[in-house]
Amino acid sequence: MFSRSNSHPGNGPADAYTQVFANNSPTKSITAGAQTTERDANRGQWGSKTEFMLSCIGYAVGIGNVWRFPYLCYRSGGGAFLVPYLLMLFLCGIPLFFMEIVMGQFSSVGCIGVFRLAPLFKGAGFAIVIVNFICTCYYSVVIAYPIMFLSKLFSLKLPWIDCQNAWNTEHCVEVLDLAKRNFTHHSGFRTPADEFFHFEILKISGSIEELGGLVWPLFYCLIFVWLSVYVCIIRGIKTVGKVVYFTAVFPFFILFVLFVRGITLPGAWKGILFYIKPEWSRLLDLKVWADAAIQIFFSLGPGWGGIVNMASFNNFRNNARGDSFVIPIVNCATSIFAGFVVFSVLGFLSHQSGIPVATVATSGPGLAFVTYPQAIAMLPMPHLWAALFFVMLYLLGLDSVFVQIEAIISSVIDEIPKLRKHKALVTLVSVIIMFLMSIIMVTRGGIFILQLFDWYSASISVILVCVLEVVMVAWIYGVDNFIADIYFMIGKRPGIVWKFCWKYITPIILIGMFFTSIIFNRDITYNGIIYPRWAIALGWLSCCISIACIPAHMLYTLVRGKTTPLKTIRKQLQAVDWTPASEQHRLEYEEYQRSRKLTSELNNIKVESIAKSRV
Predict the structure, then answer these.
(1) What is the rounded CA–CA span in Å between residue 38 and residue 226?
(2) Annotation-wise, does 5 bind a ligand?
(3) pLDDT surpasses 60 at 27
(4) In angstroms, rounded to a whole number, what is the distance separating the alpha carbons of residues 613 and 615?
(5) Predicted pLDDT of residue 181
(6) How many other C-beta atoms are found inside a 10 Å radius of the C-beta of residue 436?
(7) Are the C-beta atoms of 74 and 344 separated by less than 8 Å?
(8) Which residue among 264, 455, 477, 592 is least enclosed by CB atoms within 10 Å?
(9) Spatial distance between the Cα atoms of 49 and 51, rounded to a whole number of angstroms
(10) pLDDT exceeds cutoff 80 at 110
(11) What does the mean pLDDT of the chain come to?
(12) Distance (Å, whole) CA 242 – CA 52
């Protein structure tokens, strides 16, 4: 069950409020409409706290924990990288995570509805929906790749173990021969795993301008992915909450098994030492700190709507602060642990081939679908380890996808409550639309489109959304009012450190990330193939479509305003219907607000009296 606090003010007399919040100013005006009762009656809650925790962990712990963090850590100073990484976790990641859990849990609405804190920024909620829509389309294709690999395991030998296959070219050289003949990755030669992925799995074309036809086996895998996603979300959190017991837990078991196997391999510790050996001089590099902040940000997933949406199904009294520590720490610990799994096997690959660890170490799809499979092919019982690895990748991606889709669906239904009784149909239609949109990425040139949207569509948009969120909470609604809401909800008041982070540290880091992402952005390439200018323009367009929702909604609000633009802006920066969903909690909250306002007025009178007496 969700935890409750016996000392919670909602369960005690009104004077308990005034004693605790003697120094707080009154909150912005709120309006409790009839719609809030409908929110509570029909929206539902998690079956248990465990379901919420596992859903968040499954959402946060994704494929990027395996294919990006280990390489980023090694490239950015090894063990020394943990210094900026952990600092960014506690100064930016956890404060954002806590803030979004509170926003969702307090209001019981999704990523659009929470902007009732400052309706002028509601366009950011629509931006989140668009970003999730685009990213879910291409991410579904990414998790179709492991299914394709699994389908290729039904043979006596792994098909990427040598160069004796129909798809291999004259450039294919087996790993052991690379060392003997002193080749490098820049010599025009390719490993069997590289050619298997690109020429058999993807059947890749020459560029984005040559889409070619559908890769039918990959298309069937994509159908399987969307069917499994639909089954997982068919009844919303009722099915999601049960599925995550497997999809969120089993990957940890596989990761541990792969770790045990990895550290027993010859050369494993060579790879691990390469991973963790600190280079303290790298801490002087500003890019290392920027990479740490960006990795924390995109790993935990604030700004995507998933955290807000999952928290919106929480029990109102759930201990959000405790969750906000446990989930991010589990996520970061998993990333660090995954580095040991990856680099132990890369050390083995280096030991067997004679190629330096620095040469075999890669990140992204190259690690997951080329380098690691190549190392697995050299192990005893390679089919077993390949099956475990690709099942893990599939499950890591699956629970991230269905949380993103649930965020889209719940947010739309919150805005159009009449759709709630047709949620099953809305879910089916949403899945079909996203499936159709993702088909273009299983063509022969689909990998180029996938990489294009992955490169441009989300990074800048999501950071901007988080900047607006933290400004809205800390500066417009007011950090003291937000802290007061937290105290009302969980009976524990966040300390001065939280206040300082929300108001100063976290927004400064986010603004720095925003400008860093723009300034250091470079044109995309894939496998050395340069994208044409029109494709890069299309990538930026996918980014601008979501960002444009923010000023577009502001303009729409000003046009519809019945007063002067300045008065409309002031009105739209005031919280509207920012109350708990249930009628009982809402009545308690209104009484709580009256007590705070009375206390504030009494304090003002007292201050004025003291000032007059001194005169």
Answers:
(1) 31
(2) no
(3) no
(4) 5
(5) 63
(6) 11
(7) no
(8) 264
(9) 5
(10) yes
(11) 88
(12) 10
With a cut of 80, say whether residue 371 has pLDDT above it. yes
Residue 559 assigned as binding residue = no
Within 4-46, residue ranges assigned H as helices are 15-20, 35-43
- The answer to whether 183 touches 424, Cβ cutoff 8 Å, is no
Residue 476, classed as helix, strand or coil, is helix
Q: How far is it, in rounded angstroms, from Cα 398 to Cα 403?
A: 9
Residue 104 is assigned to a ligand binding site: no
Share of the chain above pLDDT 90, in %: 74
Any known ligand binding at 58?
A: yes
Tell me which amino acid residue 176 is. Answer: L
65 is in an annotated binding site: yes
Domains and CATH numbers, the chain: 47-562 (1.20.1740)
C-alpha span between 482 and 484 (Å, rounded):
5
Torsion of CA 213, 215, 219, 220, to 10 degrees: 130
Question: Tell me, what amino acid is at 463?
Answer: I
| 242 in Cβ contact with 45 (< 8 Å) | no
Strand partners, 443: 214
CA 63, CA 74: separation in Å to the nearest integer? 18
Q: CB neighbours (10 Å) of residue 9?
A: 22
- Angstrom distance (rounded) from CA 468 to CA 267: 48
To which residue do tokens 């569509």 refer? Answer: 457
The C-alpha atoms of residue 61 and residue 332 are separated, in whole angstroms, by 8
Q: Please, are residues 35 and 577 in contact by the beta-carbon 8 Å criterion?
A: yes
Q: Cα(554)–Cα(531) distance, rounded to whole angstroms?
A: 35
Taking only the tens place, the pLDDT of each residue in 65-83 is: 998 999 899 889 999 999 9
Both tokens of 416, joined, read 């159009």
605: Cβ–Cβ under 8 A, 6 or more apart, which residues?
A: none
Average pLDDT over residues 256-283: 93
pLDDT digits (tens, 9 = 90+) for 124-161: 999 999 999 999 999 999 999 999 999 999 988 999 99
Average pLDDT over residues 227-244: 92
Q: Which residues contact 169 (CB under 8 A, 6 or more apart)?
A: 190, 195, 199
Q: Is 142 annotated as a binding-site member?
A: no
Check whether 428 is labelled as a binding-site residue.
Answer: no
Q: Identify any residues that bridge with 214 across adjacent strands, giving them in sequence order.
A: 443
Closest CA to 479 of 464, 489, 469, 492: 469
Q: Confirm whether residue 60 is marked as ligand binding.
A: yes
Whether the model pTM is above 0.70: yes
Task: Give the per-residue pLDDT at 12.
Answer: 37
Q: How far apart are CA 580 and CA 104, in angstroms?
A: 10
Residue 602 assigned as binding residue? no
How is residue 205 annotated by DSSP? -
3-class DSSP assignment, residue 527:
coil
> Is residue 561 pLDDT above 90, yes or no?
no
